[in-house]
Task: structure prediction
Amino acid sequence: MSEQITKDDLRQFTLMIINEIRIDRQKQEEFIPDWLKSCVVKKALSISSASLQSLRTTGKVRCRKILGSYYYSKNDLADLFKD
Result:
């Protein structure tokens, strides 16, 4: 037995897909990464590349180097201002 798809079925399916896309977009907007790229950190803290390198080499901020770019721990950056 074959079931026919009606226009109403297609409308419901379209609305369901649109709703799922909206939910996914909201989740992406709420996402805040735990590791921030160098340019984001420099802009947020208004510091130079040398200052950021100094924080990295003295061990005040943890970092990871991935494909030539440094990423800094958001938690470590927040802890800098707690003292």
Q: What stands out?
A: The helical segments are 7-30, 38-45, 49-57, 74-80. The mean pLDDT is 87. Residues 42 and 51 are 9 Å apart (CA to CA). Strands lie at 35-37, 63-66, 69-73.
